[in-house]
Write a structure and sequence with these properties.
This protein has 280 residues and is of the alpha+beta class. The chain has a single domain, classed as Fumarylacetoacetate hydrolase, domain 2 (Alpha-Beta Complex). It contains six helices and 18 strands. Strands 1, 2, 3, 4, 5, 6, 7, 10, 11, 13 and 16 form an eleven-stranded mixed beta sheet that branches. A hairpin with a 3-residue loop joins β17 and β18.
Length: 280
């Protein structure tokens, strides 16, 4: 099942055709993309019954963030070995976790204003929670995942690293620094949701490439670790980490500038295009 936020309305594809969920369900489900996660099991059963499956034939306009109002947004650092190595750090024994505050979440068509001179790219697989989870175990971790999407954990490195201890959450939460999209894909639509190729292009140049099978902590392991402490809530977002190739680790360092375009790809999900702009 592919699920989208189109101009603020919940949508899916039935028999290959774009369908407004509120209309097709006869009002059983409302128009809000954020609200549907609290009824995710019921929604999935309805989708199966009406034949909501298969990838979109074309990309519609008006796409917004698949989970536009998460109550909690988690970021995972140092979750690919090549990124650990380029950062000059050690592999963590527990997921290195920070928050991206929810006000930074935007969709594929939202321009992102570049802050300062040291903003960096980080392509990531993003998991959206579909069931409340506390003390969940990894062997059933996928049962708590509504679906997967693409994210950019945009990071303003100066703010992130200026202080001791560093301010990871603030440095990664400027307005627009959490683009996600283009839509949500349920795990059953993917041949192997644990092994997805991902790439990032900056103005057409490939700057990152890996596979999600290279995650140090897999999606189910992240759910177990996080839910051992907090309760994961429907609609919550987990940015699962970025592979090597970030700008701050290059020699010389490279950072984002207004006028550039980021294209983030994950096979089976699609493309997330992020347009970077200067101060308004």
């Amino acid at each position: 099942m592919y699920v989208a936020n189109i101009r603020g309305r919940l949508a899916t594809w039935v028999d290959g055709k774009l369908a407004d969920v509120e209309q097709v369900s006869g009002g059983r489900f409302g128009s809000s993309p954020a609200a549907v996660y609290r009824r995710w099991d019921e929604f999935r059963a309805w989708g199966d019954n009406v034949g909501a499956s298969g990838s979109p034939a074309e990309v519609p306009s008006g796409l917004g963030a698949p989970s536009p109002a998460p109550r909690q947004t988690f970021g995972i650092g140092l979750n690919y070995r090549d990124h650990v190595e380029e950062s000059g750090l050690e592999v963590p024994g527990f997921p290195s976790t920070f928050c991206k505050f929810a006000s930074c979440i935007v969709g594929p068509e939202d321009p992102v204003e570049v802050v300062g001179n040291t903003s960096d790219w980080e392509v990531e697989l993003v998991a959206v929670i579909g069931r409340a989870a506390h003390n969940a175990k990894a062997d059933v971790g996928w049962d708590y995942v509504a679906g997967l999407t693409i994210g950019q954990d945009l990071s303003e490195r100066t703010r992130q690293l200026a202080d001791s201890p560093p301010q990871f959450s603030l440095g990664k939460s400027f307005p627009g620094y959490g683009p996600t999209g283009p839509w949500l894909v349920t795990p059953d639509e993917l041949t192997d949701p644990a092994d997805l190729p991902l790439r990032c292009f900056l103005d057409g140049e490939k700057v990152q490439e890996s596979r999600t099978s290279q995650l140090i902590f897999s999606v189910p392991q992240l759910i177990e670790a996080l839910s051992s402490i907090v309760t994961l809530l429907p609609g919550d977002i987990i940015f699962t980490g970025t592979p090597g190739g970030v700008g701050a680790a290059r020699s010389p360092q490279r950072f984002l500038r207004p006028g550039q375009t980021l294209v983030s790809e994950i096979d089976g999900i699609g493309q997330l295009t992020t347009t970077l702009v200067g101060p308004s």
